[in-house]
Amino acid sequence: MIPDTETQEQPQSQADIVAALSSYDLPEIRRFQQETPAPVLSHIPGGGGLPFFGQMFALLKDLHGWLDREHAKHGPVFKQKSPIGEIVFLLGPEANELVLRNEDRMFSNFLAWDITFRGLFDNNLLERDFADHKQKRRILQAAFKREAIEGHLELMSPVLRAGIEALPSGNTVRTKDFLKGLLLDTGAKVFLGTEIGADAAKLNRAFEAIVAGTTDFFKREAIWFSPYAKGVRGNRTISEFIFGEIEARRTAPGRDIFTQFCQLTDDDGRLFSPAEIRDHILFLLFAAHDTTTSTLCSTLYALAANPEWQEELRAEVAGLDKEDLTLDDLEQLVKTGWTIKEALRMYPPLAIMPRHALVEFEFGGHHFPQNTPVAISSLFTHYMAQYWSEPTRFDPLRFAPERGEDKQNFYQYIPFGGGAHKCLGLHFAEVQGKTFLYHLLRQYRVGRDDGMARYRYNNVPLTFPTDGLPLTFTRLAGR
Ligand code: HEM
């Protein structure tokens, strides 16, 4: 029988999938995902361990140690088995450059990140590719220009100050919980433009459920008690809240990001649809919240463990004796900036970044077939002895211009990623981090709880303390 060529689906060429990704043609992208066989990676070293899980448990427990061990055994290229298939790790600045610069559109973000975000953070900027990504990013960037961040600072500063003033003096505080709560309140104000009042607890729970759903490998909504199903329900709860507010925000004044998104237009003067606003806001809350919580956890640990640096920073903030700071004021907090950078070097919140190869390519003497899933690691690069002196030592001065240790290779320091997808919120994050430390260090001395010998944390899915980070906050005399 002669096949009906009119209706029969043709296999997609590489050019077809790039075109589908460039125009965010979801049905075509999904077809490609379903029809693409897994690449053959038998010639790539590594990959031992348990059936199905490979070495996933070792990786989850101690990513840094695992990367070091695999690197010592195999060099900068090795594979790892996981329940979602094999993935190849490419380590070092050259690998970071290849993947993040992404010349010739060799790597896709969608095909790498979709497995994490599907049904929870759909249509987000990080998973857009090429022309489609460029167009969306240009529009969203308007909400992160200097004047916009000046507005965000005015909104966040009083919330941070009030939260810090309420810290009980002398008691041990589970700092991760404290920071998570405080940054959610700050996020509600800056991102949503509201205190979310009576709905706060419900919305927080819904948001936490969506985030937890991202780490569920199986993503089965029918299993109603699974983290994924709870996450999908959380998404519906927050969607209802956002949709209920959009009409009023289209014309209302407001410096918060939600109101800005309701009024942003594309090149043709078209406003974002309600679903687009929901998708972008939800993803920004996600992209901003855990990453900044993680950064402040590690910064506070580092300051508690290095009291001499804490005093340096306290002297710096004392030089600006004001209630609330402007962006110009924050620029004077130079050592505070190096300290945050050093915390991000040692404890990058996103320690691994995944991509999916759209073409075959060579790296480190190996040949990789089309459709190879790859991962690069900020964490590994941030400790490479050829770029960093005494990499395990907390030493913010390595970022001082006279030392400029971070400047030897453009891709050796990548806490915010790089290339087209470099973090959109990096200035926002710096402003929030400095403002927080300004208010905190003027009033409190931070110390380690007596029982705390070292920083206990893991790096997957994001870098977080595993013991809640027990620190003490003691009010300074006269404050
Ligand atoms: C210290 C805190 C933060 C860190 C370490 C961080 C890290 C990152 C990294 C590594 C990426 C790139 C991921 C990849 O290429 O696979 C990224 C992307 C992104 N981040 Fe951040 N982030 C932080 C804070 C924020 C904040 C506060 C916001 C929003 C206000 C934000 C919004 C975004 C967005 C929208 C993207 C996607 C950009 C794109 O695809 O074009 N991030 N972030």
Helices, strands, pairings?
Layout: H1 14-22, H2 26-35, H3 56-61, H4 63-74, E1 77-82, E2 85-90, H5 93-101, E3 107-108, H6 110-117, H7 130-141, H8 146-165, E4 172-174, H9 175-192, H10 200-213, H11 227-249, H12 257-263, H13 274-305, H14 307-318, H15 327-331, H16 334-346, E5 352-357, E6 361-363, E7 366-368, E8 373-377, H17 378-381, H18 426-443, E9 444-448, E10 457-458, E11 464-465, E12 470-475
Parallel strand pairs: 2-8
Antiparallel strand pairs: 1-2, 3-5, 4-12, 5-8, 6-7, 9-12, 10-11
Helix pairs in contact: 8-9, 8-18, 9-13, 10-11, 11-13, 12-13, 13-16, 14-16, 14-18
Bound molecules: protoporphyrin IX containing FE (HEM).
Protoporphyrin IX containing FE is lined by residues 125-126, 137, 284, 287-288, 291-292, 295, 349-350, 353, 415-417, 421, 423-425, 428-429.
Describe the structure.
This protein is 48% helix and 10% strand. The chain is of the alpha+beta class and 479 residues long. It has a single domain (37-475), classed as Cytochrome p450. The strands form four sheets. Strands 1-2-8-5-3 form a five-stranded mixed sheet. The protein binds protoporphyrin IX containing FE.
Fraction of helical residues: 40-55%
Here the CATH topology equals: Cytochrome p450
Which residues sit in consecutive blocks of at least 5 with pLDDT less than 50?
1-7
- Rg estimate, integer Å: 23 Å
Quick synopsis:
By secondary structure, the chain is α+β, with helices and mostly antiparallel strands.
